[in-house]
């Protein structure tokens, strides 16, 4: 039976990087996305060992269909709930529709996908890695998205505790700013947005999709066999402390 990795939202930059990295440790990587054409293009670019499937992670029926399709070709040993997105930037600009959309995509979906694949993960004593965000750990704007990501982090702990008896491990990765196509509009409005963001990070740079992919691969691997229920920031030090803020508060050139 083939050992599969399934990555949701895999047509995006982070999803593509994760899928590419996980192929080294799995027989087949299933790249799911609502945009089947984009997922198919990515899978074809990567070559043998990748298969694309259409998947609306907010629809339990679609999730069940993907589970049935994977069961015909193998068993999912690694599930990466990567699909996500953001609507309003502030509470004052958040509509009820924005709130519901962010919750559905960034929290409900992770539950729906896990529920659909839980039996396969039991059979493989598999690993779940949820792609959360530093927004779920502190306030950096986008409140509906942030609240959903905080919920995802706690969902990760609940899976870890309840399903640990089946050998399933569940962990989350919380990226900071990652330069992806999702930032194109903001970068168009402010060409210095990444430079300005990097000033807050102790490492002086923002996160790359490959940084996230390496963290996912580690948590899914036997190297992390005793690690479950954690949220690993992959944020170039942002949640450790704000470099620009420390410089302002201390007025010290050491920062």
**CATH top level label:** Alpha Beta
Number of domains: 1
Q: Element order, helices and strands?
A: EHEHEHEHEHEHHHEH
| Helix/strand structural class | alpha/beta
The residue fraction in helices comes out at 40-55%
Query: What is the residue-averaged pLDDT?
Result: 96
Number of strands: 7
Name of the CATH homologous superfamily:
NAD(P)-binding Rossmann-like Domain
Identify the overall geometry. Answer: globular
Strand order of the largest sheet: 3-2-1-4-5-6-7
Round the Cα radius of gyration to an integer and report it. Answer: 18 Å
Number of helices: 9
Main beta-sheet annotation: 7 strands, parallel
CATH topology call: Rossmann fold
What is the CA-CA span between the terminal residues? Answer: 54 Å
Low-confidence stretches: none
């Amino acid at each position: 039976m083939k050992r599969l990795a399934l990555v949701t939202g895999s047509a995006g930059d982070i999803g593509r990087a994760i899928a590419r990295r996980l192929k080294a440790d799995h027989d087949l990587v299933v790249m799911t996305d609502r945009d089947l054409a984009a997922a198919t293009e990515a899978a074809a670019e990567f070559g043998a060992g990748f298969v694309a499937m259409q998947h609306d992670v907010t629809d339990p029926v679609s999730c069940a269909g993907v589970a049935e399709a994977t069961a015909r070709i193998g068993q999912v040993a690694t599930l990466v709930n990567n699909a996500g997105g953001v609507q309003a930037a502030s509470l004052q600009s958040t509509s009820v529709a924005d709130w519901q959309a962010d919750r559905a995509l960034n929290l409900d979906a992770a539950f729906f996908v896990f529920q659909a694949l839980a039996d396969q993960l039991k059979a493989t004593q598999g690993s779940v890695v949820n792609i959360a965000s530093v927004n779920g750990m502190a306030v950096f704007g986008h409140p509906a998205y942030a609240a959903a990501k905080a919920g995802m982090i706690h969902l990760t702990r609940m899976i870890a505790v309840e399903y640990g008896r089946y050998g399933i491990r569940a962990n989350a990765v919380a990226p900071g700013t990652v330069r992806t196509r999702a930032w194109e509009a903001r970068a168009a409005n402010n060409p210095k947005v990444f430079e300005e963001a990097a000033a807050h990070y102790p490492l002086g740079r923002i996160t790359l999709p490959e940084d996230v992919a390496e963290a996912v691969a580690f948590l899914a691997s036997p190297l992390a066999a005793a690690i479950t229920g954690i949220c690993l920031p992959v944020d170039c030090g942002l949640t450790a402390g704000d470099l620009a803020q420390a410089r302002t508060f201390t007025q010290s050139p050491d920062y």
